[in-house]
Design brief:
By secondary structure, the protein is of the alpha+beta class. Helices cover about 55% and strands about 15% of the residues.
């Protein structure tokens, strides 16, 4: 059991670990994607600003208007353009000659070229048909975005305009954002790790107990019970249901054992009698016919008893599997009851039990199976006789209302048949269980424990109501059956 509990605990811990790992990886990927998109958008904004500031039409118009013939006033024109450039505070502007030398810069001095200061954007612009190029690179070790444009008009000496924007602030913001995302991700994972441990404690440990208890129940230990958690949650409900299941299984197991014991006894008694009388008659060489008839009578009675027991078992099996067929027709319930009562009068005289029957003279029409309705009455009367001692009585009433009043003016909708004995009765706690399969209020009493279960199923199939009460007199059991009646044939549908 300990191994199964540990396996359940490790299984929960494994599922939690896998789930947390998936969440961590997914969140890391999502944060990386967000940071990359923010950086991309910022760089795109810088690029757009560079392209907007480097207005080709305005630039060429300015130089054509001020450079003079053949561009001899290039230095002065470049200085004027730089001085009037509106965005000198956020970006640097260079004017370069055809040899790539800085003629004028917004910083006021030239910058020597060297490692880390290569102007790849200028080289790309010289080879591009549009004479323009944008490039990210390094300038004095600083990350920059540069845009170059080559002026090559017939009236203007070839020169280049270059705009530079530092990406230091943007890179710093992106680094801060990435750091914040990383710290947030670490904090989230710590929180998830803490939550995972709590989840294992809240779910894994209780599930391990549930698994161990279920394994014990599966092995036949129906006394095991799970300690319910303090809080009402899903684990509480699961534990409560398993405890309830264990109680029901234990009850069913005990009922099954009682049933097997009862059936074994019920079968052994008549079989022993039949075998004993058969062996006795086989060895009787004198052929005393009175003695032989007595033996044959016992064997016939015991055979009938066996047949009734087997029929009850078969009927119960068919009812449980919905294979019992009812041959319904229009019948008189009181007429069927009178026939059954007539059959029991001989038994009543033989056992010294008074049988009293009082029914209405009005018909009680019903649409049902006559054989099954008679079977219901036979089972109920047989049960009443079994529990009625010698000198007692069994009374039967059939009225069109529970209080005994009969209305002859119009056929009512229900018939109440009440059967009362003067036996020991049934404990109040056992009354709701009388129709359960294999249930017997008195383990020592005769019978298989399925007779009343068959009765309940047959009545349910006919739409009848069955109730058990202890007799008002204080002794005996009172059984009430409410039969739904039909009027004309048009109403019997």
């Amino acid at each position: 059991m300990a191994k199964k509990a540990d396996r359940a605990r490790h299984t929960v811990r494994g599922y939690v670990s896998v789930g947390l790992t998936i969440i961590a990886l997914f969140s890391a990927g999502a944060l990386a994607f967000v940071v990359a998109e923010i950086a991309k958008n910022n760089y795109t904004l810088v690029r757009s600003e560079l392209e907007r500031r480097l207005n080709v039409y305005t630039l060429e118009s300015f130089f054509l208007a001020n450079a003079g013939a053949n561009g001899e006033l290039l230095e002065q024109t470049a200085l004027d353009y730089v001085n009037h450039f509106p965005a000198k505070d956020i970006m640097e502007i260079w004017i370069l000659d055809s040899k790539g030398r800085i003629v004028v810069s917004s910083s006021g001095f030239g910058v020597p070229m060297g490692p880390g200061n290569a102007m790849e954007d200028l080289s790309d612009a010289l080879g591009d048909p549009s004479r323009r190029a944008l490039k990210k690179g390094r300038y004095n070790g600083e990350h920059i975005y540069a845009c170059s444009y080559i002026l090559n008009s017939p009236n203007v000496r070839q020169c280049a305009v270059r705009l530079l924007v530092s990406l230091k602030a943007i890179d710093l913001q992106i680094a801060q954002l990435a750091l914040m995302a990383l710290l947030g991700w670490l904090a989230m994972n710590l929180l998830l790790f803490w939550f995972g441990r709590l989840l294992v404690r809240w779910v894994g440990e209780p599930l391990a107990k549930v698994s161990a208890a279920a394994a014990k129940i599966a092995e036949g230990n129906y006394t095991v019970r799970i300690e319910l958690p303090k809080e009402r949650n899903e684990i509480y409900d699961l534990s409560e249901n398993i405890n309830y299941m264990a109680e029901k299984v234990a009850f069913a197991e005990q009922t099954k054992l009682d049933f097997i014991s009862t059936i074994s006894h019920e079968l052994r008694t008549p079989l022993t009698a039949i075998r004993g009388w058969g062996e006795t008659l086989a060895l009787d060489s004198n052929r005393d016919w009175a003695f032989t008839n007595r033996g044959l009578s016992v064997m016939i009675d015991e055979t009938a008893r066996l047949t009734k027991l087997v029929e009850e078992l078969l009927d119960f099996s068919r009812l449980q599997s919905n294979r019992l067929q009812l041959n319904k027709e229009y019948i008189d319930v009181l007429a069927e009851l009178d026939d059954v009562v007539f059959l029991f009068r001989e038994r009543a005289a033989r056992e010294g039990v008074e049988l009293v029957c009082s029914t209405s003279e009005l018909p009680a029409p019903m649409y049902g199976d006559p054989a099954r309705i008679r079977q219901v009455f036979v089972n109920l009367l047989d049960n009443a006789f079994k529990h009625t001692p010698q000198g007692g009585s069994v009374s039967i009433t059939g009225t069109f209302s529970e209080n005994g009043e009969v209305s002859p003016a119009e056929l009512p909708e229900k018939l109440c048949v009440a059967i009362q004995d003067t036996g020991p009765g049934v404990p109040e706690a056992a009354l709701p269980h009388l129709t359960e399969k294999f249930f017997k209020a008195d383990i020592g009493s005769k019978g298989s424990g399925i007779g009343l279960a068959v009765v309940a199923e047959l009545l349910k199939a006919h739409g009848c109501e069955l109730r058990f009460e202890n007799a008002p007199t204080g002794r005996g059991l009172l059984v009430k059956i409410m039969f739904p009646l039909s009027g004309s044939k048009k109403q019997r549908k």
